[in-house]
Design goal:
The complex is a heterodimer of chains A (about 190) and B (about 575). In chain A, the strands form 3 sheets. In chain A, strands 5, 6, 7, 8 and 9 form a 5-stranded antiparallel beta sheet that branches. Chain A is α+β, with helices and mostly antiparallel strands. Chain A contains 6 helices and 11 strands. Chain B starts with a strand and ends in a 34-residue tail after the last strand. In chain B, the strands form 4 sheets. Chain B has a 6-stranded parallel beta sheet with strand order 3-2-4-5-7-6, with helices on both faces. In chain B, strands 11-10-9-12-13-14 form a 6-stranded parallel beta sheet, with helices on both faces. In chain B, helix 1 packs parallel to helix 7 and helix 16 packs across helix 23. In chain B, about 40% of the residues lie in helices and about 15% in strands. Classes of the chains: A alpha+beta (about 190), B alpha/beta (about 575).
């Protein structure tokens, strides 16, 4: 069973290491982990996809909250949400098969972002299973190189899971302890 | 303007720190130089940085507040690792301050550089690398707050040499610790109502009292809860002292070396009330058959402990003392005499067993030593134990009436813990009698700290339970490895002579009639005294739940108790 967590963290050096170290130590198997800035200053957002059952999910959340730099955790597995992944794939495409490759690209609404003499670089964004299908579609022509970003996710609807206001009011670490974010700022 | 080094000490003073256990070295030299300007801090020079962390830990556990250990970079910092892990596993509030190479040299494999924040990441509540003098005060303030708040634990602050040397604005008198917050109480009213209904409906409830009782200072509430509802209490090793041993509702220690009636009561209970304990494998036995008929209510401050090992029916998250205060007014019945009588019957002969009355067969048993120690000290001493057989015998035969009177490494099981932790405990409670109870194996791991005790002119008492083996490992080899005593026979120095070499008093007891006089002599001695108790070599701790067995499937004591395994 795969579950998806959205994790807001203070944008400090080493935070990614703390999160990944936690997953390693507790034996939680990470399927994918992405991290980047948000519109909120000093706050980064991770999407973590973990292979874990429903019983284990609250423990993942509770353990994340034990890291003082974790500001907010959402298990969005059973919440209607948008999941997207980006893939860039370099496909062997001699002139003879190029039209066939292009048909696959169109079918999956992917884009060609570079055309070389004997290859095409294709970019696609979509849910994980759509990306999987695209890759299977071009595989027969020969994949020369490929990179996937891993899943990023966001819940549907109006509600935001974590806001600028939360950042200024939120105590760090939930019930584990309550420390204002200012405590942690300046200290990497 | 103050230097970062000065700010370190100003912050410690602001946090109420009076003792620091440490060892100087290159990268922490500026802090040690600045120490000369702060005579209100008593610095204890240890003999190994592991000792410093255990001392800070023992200091905290004895009730001294957050313990502070200090060391230099590289090997100084890595030597602290075992002590930090020990404090982490047993939720002990410790702040470790380490020097680090100058910030310009970070990542260059400079002399005595090590990535101590990386190394200690999984064994601290949190850690910090400080590279600017301006960050020293806010970081230490956060570190102390983290160490003591919520579920306590160790925090490490690594400060580069240039951060110690450079200066910034700092007003010591403006420094104040973060206010202690009790954290959110997340359990809602419905959960409380359900818990109360469950408790009032229970016919055979048992309270499992853990370290959380002591950490949340919930001794009074625990007592009130148990008495008003007539519910017996089983103790974890680290819970011992949280409820008086002589109280009729105190069943004693549960788990691998708990008495049979305690484990049977847990297995036959219809409700387990887990108060500040975490269902460690040493107290549950195999989970498949653990308390199969019992509903479970878990009162716990750390949400990550709920449903980790044992699935519970209700979790009440928060500070134990506050949760109990909320439950107590709703306890509706105390008619549990049948259950209490039933447990009394389980005790059978063993309940009235008084090892003092067993005839002297010429052998000296560790149980007798502990029993005599308990009698001679009227059960009033702080006892700091190491890890192994003697630790279990102490838990069984020294009846602790008061909180914080047993200090021991439970979760990590750190051999070598006792002597340094006792030194820390003595600084926290200088007016209390402090006994070290250690085996001949563990004692040798940290015995250089005898020099620390001597230099500090401490009045400690040390009982080395010397059986010539790594006893607990030998016991497992005897029971589970066909008596192949692989690497467990142990040659030791003459501990009494060793103590004398450190300028301390050294005594030896070889027979039962020598035990009490030796204890009396050690107690009367002003200064540290060590007694080398030459005990039966192949004695075993009973009862014992073999690893992986059900909690009620114990290897019972041979009868009479004191037969050796060899004679049995």
């Amino acid at each position: 069973m795969v579950r998806t967590f959205i994790v807001y963290v203070a944008d400090h050096p080493g935070v990614l290491n703390r999160v990944s170290s936690l997953f390693r130590r507790r034996g939680y198997n990470i399927e994918s982990l992405t991290v980047g800035h948000t519109h909120i200053p000093e706050v980064s957002r991770m999407t973590v996809v973990v292979a874990i059952d429903a019983q284990g999910a609250p423990l993942v959340e509770a353990n994340l909250y034990k890291l003082p730099e974790v500001l907010h955790v959402d298990d969005i597995t059973s919440v209607p949400s948008l999941h997207r992944e980006l893939v860039i794939v370099k496909v062997a495409a001699l002139q003879s098969v190029r039209p066939d490759v292009m048909r696959v690209v169109e079918a999956f609404r992917a884009r060609v972002i570079e055309v070389a003499a004997e290859s095409l670089v294709i970019e696609a964004t979509g849910p994980e299973d759509a990306i999987d299908s695209l890759i299977e579609g071009v595989r027969p022509y020969g994949i020369l190189e490929m990179t996937r970003t891993g899943c990023v996710a966001m819940t549907r609807g109006n509600a935001a899971t974590f806001t600028l206001e939360d950042r200024s009011q939120k105590t760090v670490g939930s019930s584990w302890h309550s420390t204002n974010l200012t405590v942690l700022r300046n200290c990497s | 303007m103050k230097t970062g080094a000065q700010i370190v000490w100003e912050c410690l003073i602001g946090e109420g720190v009076k003792h620091v256990f440490g060892y100087p070295g290159g990268a922490i030299l500026p802090a040690y130089d600045a120490l000369c300007g702060y005579p209100e801090i008593h610095h204890v020079l240890v003999r190994h940085e592991q000792g410093a962390t255990h001392m800070a830990d023992g200091y905290a556990r004895a009730g001294g507040g957050v313990g502070v250990a200090m060391a230099t970079s590289g090997p100084g910092a890595t030597n602290m690792v075992t002590g930090i892990a020990t404090a982490m596993m047993d939720s002990s509030p410790v702040v470790c301050i380490t020097g680090q190479v100058g910030s310009k040299f970070l990542g260059t494999d400079a002399f005595q550089e090590t990535d101590i924040t990386g190394i200690t990441l999984p064994i601290t509540k949190h850690n910090y690398l400080v590279k600017r003098a301006e960050d020293v005060a806010p970081t230490l303030r956060a570190a102390f707050h983290l160490a003591r708040s919520g579920r306590p634990g160790p925090v490490l602050v690594d400060i580069t040499k240039d951060a110690q040397q450079s200066s910034c604005e700092f007003v010591g008198s403006a420094y104040s610790p973060f206010a202690v917050t009790e954290g959110n109480q997340r359990a809602d009213a419905n959960q409380y109502a359900a818990a109360i209904e469950m408790i009032n409906a229970a016919e055979r409830p048992v309270i499992l009292a853990g370290h959380g009782v002591l950490l949340s200072n919930a001794m009074g509430e625990l007592s009130e809860f148990a008495e008003s509802a007539s519910i017996p209490i089983a103790m974890t090793l680290l819970g011992i002292g949280g409820f008086p041993a002589s109280h009729p509702l105190n069943l004693g220690m549960m788990g691998m070396h708990g008495e049979a009636w305690v484990n049977h009561a847990i297995q036959e209970a219809d409700l387990l009330l887990a108060f500040g304990m975490r269902f460690d494998d040493r107290v549950t036995g195999t989970l498949k058959t653990y308390a199969p008929r019992a509903k479970k209510i878990h009162v716990e401050i750390d949400p990550a402990e709920v449903n980790k090992n044992v699935r519970v029916d209700i979790a009440l998250l928060g500070d134990l003392r506050r949760v109990l205060s909320r439950l107590i007014p709703n306890l509706a019945r105390s008619d549990r005499q049948r259950w209490l009588h039933y447990i009394d019957d389980l005790k059978g002969d063993s309940a009235v067993r008084d090892i003092q009355k067993l005839p002297d067969n010429g052998h000296l048993y560790a149980a007798h030593v502990i029993n005599d120690l308990w009698r001679e000290t009227n059960g009033n001493s702080i006892v700091v134990t190491d890890v192994g057989q003697h630790q279990m015998w102490e838990a069984q035969y020294y009846k602790h009436e008061k909180p914080h009177s047993l200090i021991t490494s439970g979760g990590l099981g750190t051999m070598g813990f006792a002597l340094p932790a006792a030194i820390g405990a003595k600084f926290a409670r200088p007016d209390s009698e402090v006994w070290v109870v250690a085996g001949d194996g563990g004692f040798q791991m940290t015995m250089p700290e005898l020099a620390t005790a001597a230099q500090e002119e401490l009045d400690l008492n040390i009982a080395v339970i010397n059986n010539g083996y790594l006893g607990m490992v030998r016991q497992w080899q005897e029971f589970f490895y066909d008596r192949r005593y692989s690497a467990t026979p142990l040659l030791s120095p003459d501990f009494a002579k060793l103590a004398e070499a450190f300028g301390l008093r050294g005594l030896t007891a070889r027979s039962r009639e020598q035990v009490a006089p030796a204890i009396r002599e050690a107690r009367q001695h002003r200064g540290t005294a060590l007694i080398n108790f030459m005990v039966e070599q192949e004695d075993a701790v009973f009862p014992m739940v073999p690893s992986g067995a059900a909690l009620h499937q114990m290897i019972r004591r041979p009868s009479p108790l004191v037969e050796t395994a060899a004679e049995a």
